[in-house]
Amino acid sequence: MNILEGMRWGEKQLLAKKVDNPRFDADILLAGILKVSRDRLYLERDRLLKQNEETAFREWISRRSEHEPLQYILQRQEFMGLVFYVDERVLIPRADSEILVEKWLELVHLDEARGLKPNTKVADLCTGSGALAISMAHYFSGSKVVGTDLSPDALAVARQNGVNLGVAVEWRQGDFTAPIREEKWDWIVSNPPYVSRDDYLLCAPEILREPSMAFLGGQDGLEFYRRLAEEAGFLLNQEGKILLEIGWDQAESVGEIFQKRGFATQVFPDLAGRDRVILAR
Predict the structure, then answer these.
(1) Contact between 276 and 99 (Cβ < 8 Å)
(2) How many other C-beta atoms lie within 10 A of the C-beta of residue 58?
(3) What's the rounded Cα separation, in Å, for the pair 92 and 125?
(4) Helix axis angle, 152-165 relative to 131-139, nearest 10°?
(5) Helix (H, G, I), strand (E, B) or coil at 91
(6) What is the DSSP string of 22-65?
(7) Which of 104, 120, 129, 118 has its CA nearest to residue 279?
(8) CA torsion sign, 242 to 246 to 248 to 251?
(9) CB burial of residue 16 (10 Å; 0-12, 13-18, 19+)
(10) For residue 117, is pLDDT > 80?
(11) How large is the angle between the packed helices 51-65 and 3-16, nearest 10 degrees?
């Protein structure tokens, strides 16, 4: 088949399996096989696919037909302008989480303008692919960033991303705050698991292919926030702060959890105007 026939065939296969955006996904997968941009497919639409290219494309379409996430097949995801390696060992970084890094950078620069020390010591809990930790270290060179995760498999991916992107982050394996309890921190930042059990069962099949521990936040989705609020006072420096991603409907509940522990909180929206990030100090 030629390139145009391949795009049409891929779209038809994915449409039959009720995959969202079947033409886009087919195009992106074929572009990935050919190592060209999507627009190049249309410019070269009459070119015949080589046998190995067609075989690989059919395999990738088969995987996508089973609702394997596009990012796992391509083994890449862009986040904060950086390209991260991802596979089934880690949560796929979402654009929503970029708000967390952007807000952190804004707050750090405000502190710097007020004369606070620029050598910011940051712990990124539940680091997964390392997207948050690496992005913070990349865009604020004065920071010392530690990324932690319970999963050694996730940390292997994070380490690989640190090497690939040439960014220095210290990686520590352990449960929750265990890897950071012996020190005091300027910042604790995290995109924690915050999906309730009931909501998780309603997720799209692609999400169910990602590590469940990266989503499930207990029965009501708030378990991580409760645990962190209990320990935070012992983990932070005097001017220390916590910045966390939250679900769109969790701002009030998470705010109350931290306020009961003596923290003042502030909520920031994402680009769609939904509550997305909470600051506790």
Answers:
(1) yes
(2) 17
(3) 16
(4) 30
(5) coil
(6) HHHHHHHHHHHHHTS-HHHHHHTTTPBPPHHHHHHHHHHHHHHH
(7) 104
(8) negative
(9) exposed
(10) no
(11) 20
Sheet with 185-190: list strands edge to edge.
170-173, 144-149, 121-125, 185-190, 236-245, 275-280, 265-269
The kind and range of the H/E element at 172 are: strand 170-173
Give CA–CA dist 236/183, Å, rounded.
8
Q: What is the pLDDT of residues 201-229, one digit of tens each?
A: 999 999 999 999 999 999 999 999 999 99
**pTM metric for this prediction:** 0.94
pLDDT at 112: 81
Say whether 149 sits in a helix, a strand or coil: strand
Which residues are CB-neighbours of 39 under 8 A, at least 6 positions away?
none
CA angle 94, 279, 166 (to 5 degrees): 50
- Residues 6+ away with beta carbon under 8 Å from 166: none
Checking if the pLDDT of 252 tops 70, the result is: yes
